[in-house]
Design goal:
Elements: H1 9-28, H2 35-59, H3 64-75
Length: 76
């Protein structure tokens, strides 16, 4: 799904900010740790990060060499 050209870039960040605020609120509260919760929260954060990177790339695509350099730097 391509972002709409009439939607400002900061408005597309609003869902990310809301989800991040909810996750931060949940992380700072004392809570019981379960095996499910240990796996679900990191998976949600990884998916949220991947979605943010994907939507940013659709708005402002980077050259292939920059993406490859970032992948190599991240792997190191």
């Amino acid at each position: 799904m391509q972002p709409s050209p009439n939607v400002p870039w900061w408005l597309q960040l609003l869902p990310l900010v809301v989800v991040a605020a909810i996750l931060i609120f949940r992380f700072i509260r004392p809570q019981r740790i379960s095996v499910t919760r240990m796996w679900i929260q990191p998976i949600v954060l990884v998916l949220l990060t991947g979605w943010a990177i994907y939507t940013t790339e659709t708005l402002n695509p980077a050259p292939g060499w920059e993406i490859a350099a970032a992948l190599v730097a991240g792997a190191i």
